[in-house]
Amino acid sequence: MIGRIRSQAIDTSRFLTDWMEHRTGIVTMMEHFLYEPVPKRGAWLYTLGSATLFCISLQFLTGILLLFYYVPTTDHAWDSIYYIMEEAYFGTLIRGIHYWSANFLLVFIGLHMAQVFFSGGYKAPRELNWVVGVVLLLLVIVLAFTGYLLRWDQDGFWASVVGMKIGSYSPFVGGATIHFLLGGDVTGPATLSRFFAIHVWLLPAALAPFIGIHLYLLRKHGVFGSEFEYSDRLAKLHERQRLELYESYEENGHEEIGETNLGRRNREERDRRE
Amino acid sequence: MYAPATGKAKPVEEEVITEENVFDRPDETIGFFPKQVLYDLFVSTLILIACCVLSYLSPAPLTEPADPATITYIPRPEWFFFFYEQMLMFFPGYALIGFGAVVVPTIFVGLLFAVPWLDTGPQYSPLRRPFATVIGLLVVVVVVLNMLMAVARIINFPGQ
Fold first, then answer.
1. What angle do CA A129, A134, A137 make, to 5 degrees?
2. Which of A4, A99, A160, A198 has the fewest Cβ atoms within 10 Å of its own Cβ atom?
3. What is the value of ipTM here, to two decimals?
């Protein structure tokens, strides 16, 4: 009895897999993505990138949950956050994860970036992945800045006022840009609306495709890791190059190098000639 | 179908390693699934646990409601902007602040974008490209020092 059920279950799952593969090709795609060989020695080091991605995913998830209660108006923003912290189910947890994973996100971005920089991971053909990574860094910094004002508490408000003041000192474009961001001359209701739109719609929408490109390029060129992933192959290469160099010395003989450095074969030839 | 990660084209013994293909494949590989995925999941779980614990031990801050009329409030940026705020102290006055606040960071970001084209040598190891390594370490030291200076300032002069 168990045998019949087992074989029917196998048949059903095989049918479903083939059906999906035939319609979407998703099985081949999953195989391609999942069984990719990646460097072994520094595997723990390369979790920095995935930790960054995980923190961003937490930001998206908890951010959506916060939107259930948050109201982006000057009258209600602070009250709605107070409600999230004090009344809403798991509000403290959701806002806590949003806050703390944002802090961790910046830490992990810094560490990930340092790891790639010091191991030379940006070199050809991976230049564009570095460029996309810098774009992602800038987007996250602006996200962190705009999120601070949304609390509409004294800290966030005055830090944003100072930030805007600093931005207004930019040569040529400062005044106009800040006027656009503030939606007027001073930080007020229009500013909150604009920061809300930027923090919740514009930047996440910009972030997602760049993350996609970052991962696509990573898969296209494979994980580089660091030079110590290739030390055996480099040793073989250098050994072969050394042997080839000696061979060329021996073939070219007297003209290239002095008598003292001659290989054994040449010395025998010389002796015979004499 | 689980296939252990082997190389792409040729078996290891037959392949002739040249300058071009030496970085094609690492010496030792693991499959992205399940090994690397497990490592990633382990780290992600630690992060999630840390976030959950911290959100109750040290809840996300919320100070008094914003009041544009106050004039005595001392604003503090978040910790990851400390180094930037501290750096501005080295560009005092209206003549220099635009330079320190916008021009210098813009140049820095421009250089950051250009890194792959500024360092195009064949060497990967940080020890064999000392110029890039020293510059990178200097940036890290400057950022960390500025952060520490900002923290020291905030501790020493809480009211300023």
1. 125
2. A4
3. 0.89
